[in-house]
Structure formats: C-alpha cells, structure tokens
Amino acid sequence: MDFLTGLTNLTSWFGNVMLPTLAGLFFVVSVLRFSRGGSHQYSMYAGFAALMVSGLLRGIERFTMQRAWNDPDAIWITLLGLVNWSANVFLPLYGVLQVVMAIMHFGGMGFRIYPGAPWARHILAAMLCFGLSGALRLAEFFIAQGTGGVS
Amino acid sequence: MPTFLFDVMRVLLLLTGPAAFVCLVNAGIALRREGGTVFWIGGGFSKWMLWAVIFLGLEPTLTWFQFLGIPVAFPPGYAVGTPWLANIQQGIATFVSSFIVARIAPVVAAYFVIRAVLDTASGAGPLPSVLSAMFLLAISSTHALIDAWTPVGNRFSIALGLETMWTYLASRIMPIAAGLAVCGAIVLFAFNRPGYLRLVMCAGGFLTVSALWVLITRMM
Predict the structure, then answer these.
(1) Is B197 touching A (CB cutoff 8 A)?
(2) Of A37, A51, B67, B206, which cross-links B174 as Cys (Cβ 3.0–4.6 Å)?
(3) Could you say which residues from 77 to 116 on chain A have a Cβ atom under 8 Å away from some Cβ of chain B?
(4) Cα B177 to chain center, whole Å?
(5) Quick one: pLDDT at residue A150?
(6) B136: distance to nearest CA of chain A, Å?
(7) Taking a C-beta distance cutoff of 8 angstroms, is the pair B202, B175 a contact?
(8) CA-based angle A89:B181:B109, to the nearest 5?
(9) Collapsed DSSP state (helix, strand, coil) of residue A19
(10) DSSP letter string over A107-136?
(11) pLDDT in the model for residue A107
C-alpha cells in the first residue's frame, strides 16, 4: 500500500465509477426541478459533466502540456490556450445554439408555445420522466461521439 | 573508543528508522487536524515530516563533521555487541513495527474513515479524513520512499530527501490531485455551490506547479 496508488484509485473510482452513476441522479434532479419551474440547468449540465469527467481532465491536461514541464511560459500558454479555446471553439458552438434558439423563438416558441407555461412544462416533464433512461443514453451517445473533438 | 560507546552509538543510529515511523504516524494525525487536503507551514504535519526526513538522513548528515575536519568515530558494522543494549534496540524496533505500524496506524486510519462519514453528515466533505486515512495506511511505503531519497554517504542527504519529496509531490501527487479537483468542481457545480471555478483553476495549477516554480526562479 502506498499513498500514490491509493490516491490514484480514489480519483479513478470517483471519476469513472461514481460520477457517471451520479449523472443519472443529476438528470433526475434536473427533471424534478424543471417540472416545478425551478432552475434546472445546473443539474443538467452537471450530469453531462459527470459523464465526461475523464474528458474534462484530459482537456485541462492538454491545455497545460503544450510546453515542457520546466518551461516558465507554460503558465501563460495554458491560460492562452484556455482563452483561445473559449473564444474560437466554445463560442462558435454556443453561437450555433443561439441561432437555433432564435429560430425557435421566431417560430413561436416563447409566447405562443411558451415552455414555461404550466401545461407545456408538465407535458415535457412527463415525457422526460417516462424517457429519462433514453435521455441519459442519448447524452452518453453524444459524449461518446465527441471523444474525437470538434470537427 | 570503548566498545560500549560504539554500541550506544549503534543503538541510537539503528533507532532512527523506528523514530521516523513514529514521526510519520504523528504526521498523519496532524494532517487531518490541519485540514487533510492542506497543511500549515510550520504546523504539525510539516514538522513531523521534516523530522522523519532528518531521522532517516541523520547518519549521512554526520559526515558534515568529517567534511569540516572534525574526526567522527562511526561504529564499525551494524551488530550491537552488548547483549542488553541489543535487546533494548530490538525491543523498541519490534514494538514500533508490530504495534504502532502494524496495529495502531490502521486503527487510527479506520477511525478517520468513520470520521469521514461523520464529516459528511455534519455538512463538511469526507475528503480530508479519507486522505489522512490513506496516508496512515501507507506509512510503510512512505518510510521506504524517504529512506531511498536520503542516500547513504552524502552529507546533503536531508536536503536531497526534501528536494526529492518536493519533486514527488509536484510530479506524481499533484497530477492525480488535478483529477480529484475536476470531480470536486463537478459536484459543486451540480449543487449550484460557489467554488467550482476555483477548483478548475486549481486543477490547472496542480498540473503546472513545476512550471510555476521555474517561472518564479526566472523572475528572481
């Protein structure tokens, strides 16, 4: 028994066993909050993050490993990589999502079919309640498809 | 020099290993007291770890006296000639290895596991107690590591031990801690608690701690 092995196994167990399992719970909490009109985004995004904890760590490692360990510029390059990724990868994808949202709102989603209206919210919550396993599998599918990065 | 004095010196030098074990047990307990995931500078954990390194690097450090021109009469060989002194040394070594290391340290670690559950019940995280329990369960291998980091015959042995310990911490422990920090950030985010961005930045910091050290030395 040594400390490094224990710490490695603890991290691996928590990141690869417990968090993917808890992802389902985060989605359940998200659906429950959504059905009551509460803030549900945190739990939903946490569910996605819990499914891709290894990918998040690999991403941070990628940011930090762009220079040698003894290169003093590694700190700056790490921050530069994070800013570069946020501005040139994340924001364009987020922009696509905003375009989709704009089209949906233009089509009436927002006032004629308002998702915050009780009847629509409860119908959607019921659909999610009946199909949460499918939604979770869909999230896992999206994450598995995304291991190759954005193309 | 009389044989008896040589035997006393041999006994004292042979007891440095068991003393380092006791220091490591105290370090594990102090680690929990000081937070588990952090430790105080000049606090119990750093003090006991320093003493563990000093005990394991004591014999090579004594060669400083030879380097300064002061004759040091190291006892030849490792065998203690005086039977009752040998019995005392053997008894203390057996007590430390069979009682403290093999029995007491795992029991204290088990209590820390209970404390981890109680910490969770009281609203705090279980990680500090879990890490302290792991440290206590691993003191045998930690002892072996520090022993290997304090080379025999090098008068800088203590400094080398501390340097190698820093390198081990920065290059082996910290990258794993980065993974744990990402997990913690996700949990904090899930419950809409503040601090998840701090943990993400910590993960980046854990992975670049060596570069940070080089950066600071270049700034000087």
Answers:
(1) no
(2) B206
(3) 78, 82
(4) 17
(5) 57
(6) 9
(7) no
(8) 165
(9) helix
(10) TTTTTTS-TTSHHHHHHHHHHHHHTHHHHH
(11) 76
Measured distance CA(B52)–CA(B28) in Å, rounded: 12
Nearest to residue B127, comparing CAs of B76, B176, B88? B176
Token pair of A130, please?
């009946």
Higher-confidence residue of B183 and A104: namely: B183
pTM, rounded to two decimals: 0.82
For the segment A36-61, the average pLDDT, to the nearest whole number, is: 87
- Whether A148 has a pLDDT exceeding 70, the answer reads no
- Which residues, 6 or more positions from A118, have their beta carbon under 8 angstroms from its beta carbon? A37
Among the partner-chain residues B134, B175, B204, the one whose CB lies closest to the CB of A6 is: B134
Phi/psi at B74 (5° precision): -70, 140
Helix A41-51 and helix A132-145, axial crossing angle in degrees, nearest 10: 50
- Nearest CB partner across the interface for A72, out of B131, B186, B214: B214
Buried b (16+ CB within 10 A) or exposed e, A55-69: ebbebbeebbbebeb
DSSP letter at B192? T
pLDDT at A44 over 80: yes
Residues in B closer than 8 angstroms to A45, CB to CB, are 189
Percent of chain B as helix, strand, coil, to the nearest 5: 75, 0, 25
Could you identify the residue written with the tokens 């945190």? Answer: A42
CB within 8 Å of A24: residues ≥ 6 apart = A47, A132, A136
Q: Provide the shortest C-alpha distance from residue B208 to chain A (in Å).
A: 6
- Of the candidates A50, A60, A75, the beta carbon closest to that of B212 is on A75
User: Residue A115's pLDDT is what?
Assistant: 57
pLDDT surpassing 70 at residue A110:
no
| Closest CB from B142, B190, B208 relative to A75 | B208
- What pLDDT score does A112 carry? 60
* Helix (DSSP H) and strand (DSSP E) numbers for chain A: 8, 0
Residue A63 clears pLDDT 70, i.e. is over it:
yes
Residue of B nearest to A29 (CA): B190
Token pair listed for B215: 């950066």
DSSP state of A18: I
pLDDT band at B123 (very low <50, low <70, confident <90, very high): confident
